[in-house]
Each structure stands twice: as structure tokens, then as C-alpha cells.
Amino acid sequence: MLALMRPGLDLPTYAGILQRFALAYARIEPLLCELDHCRPAGLPAYRPRLPALLDELAGLPESVSRPFSPLPPPASDAGAHYFGMRYVVEGSTQGARLIFAQLEKNLPQPAGAGFAYWRVQREAATGWPLFRDCLDQAGVEPEALVQGAEAAFSVFIDAFVPPVHAA
Predict the structure, then answer these.
(1) CB pairs under 8 A, 24+ apart, for 27-31?
(2) How far is 158 from 127, CA to CA, in rounded Å?
(3) Multiple choice CATH, 2-61+72-160, 1.20.910.10, 4.10.410.60, 3.40.140.20, 3.40.50.720
(4) Is the dihedral of CA 110, 19, 119, 7 positive or negative?
(5) Per-domain boundaries in the chain
(6) Global pTM?
(7) Each residue's pLDDT expressed in tens, for the chain with a length of 167 residues
(8) Which of 31, 94, 111, 124 has the smallest number of CB atoms closer than 10 Å to its CB?
(9) In contact, 92 and 39? CB cutoff 8 Å
């Protein structure tokens, strides 16, 4: 991820990073959509990131992908689980402006669909205060909220940490 912020970023490295994001969102977004019924009326629907990632990746050098399986539904308190997962995804938007600006300076040529993923992230960042307010008012069970957040964090960690092969 630090490569996104540094001069000398090349397209294969950038494509590899986006591929990891795509892997994570491919696991998270089906469950977020399935749990949309848990979203309070005042909170806008989740804006998927995977389509923007796939558009951008279509114009970049191929990178290695790994198989994935969607996240299973939560065992209990789907509303809190939804908020916890969305907390991680929506919170990730907060660095989008800075990353976008650095990418425009550091990537040697326009990438794929013109930084489509980072544009979605930057636009979604404006909804962070509303999301926080809805979360504060939702009165969700903290333990289930943490479980949802941990599930989302685990997906991103799995996508970005290379698998360890037994020797």
C-alpha cells in the first residue's frame, strides 16, 4: 500500500494492488448487499467499489488473482454485523483524497479507467459523517459490531498478505 504514495510506482505494481482490493471487495460486497435490509432509512445504500475496480483493472497489465469465497452471513445480530463491516469499508475512504493526489503525481501514465476506484472512494468519503451519525443512533450491540468489523478487516488482510506455502 505504501507504493501508492511513493514516486516510481509502475503499472504492474498498481495493478497488483487493485487486484487485491478487487479480491477483498468480491468477498465483502455480496454480504453487504444481502444485509442491506439492516440499513437504517437515513443511511444511503452501500455504493459498490468492485465495478470501478474491475473497470480500471480491465485496462491494466494482468496480475495474479487468487480464488475467493463470499463471506458467510452472520450467525446473529445481522444489523450490527452490517454496521461493523460497513464501518471498515466506509472508513477506508478517508485517505482517498491523499492517495488519489499522490497517484496522479506518481503513476507514469493514466491507468485503465482513470483511477476509477479512487474516484469512487473519494466521492464516498463525503458520506462518512452521515454514516458515523447513523451508527451512533443505531444502538447496535458492540460485540456484534466488532465481529462485523473484524470480519471485514480479515478479508482485507487475507487479500494483501501473501499466502504462506508450506515447505
Answers:
(1) 27/68, 27/69, 27/70, 27/71, 27/155, 27/159, 28/71, 28/85, 28/89, 28/152, 28/155, 30/70, 30/71, 31/70, 31/71, 31/72, 31/73, 31/85
(2) 27
(3) 1.20.910.10
(4) negative
(5) 2-61+72-160
(6) 0.88
(7) 788 888 888 888 898 899 999 999 999 999 999 999 999 989 999 999 999 999 988 888 765 556 667 777 787 789 999 999 999 999 999 998 899 889 888 886 766 668 899 999 999 999 999 999 999 998 888 888 999 999 999 999 999 887 666 55
(8) 94
(9) no
Phi, psi (rounded to 5 degrees) for 118: -70, -30
- Please give the Cα distance from 128 to 138 (Å, whole number): 15
Cα dihedral value 146, 24, 108, 125, nearest 10: -40
98-106 long-range contacts, CB within 8 A, separation 24+? 98/5, 99/4, 99/5, 102/4, 102/5, 102/6, 103/4, 103/9, 103/14, 105/7, 106/4, 106/5, 106/6, 106/7, 106/8, 106/9
Residue with cell 465495478: 51
Residue listed under C-alpha cell 462518512: 128
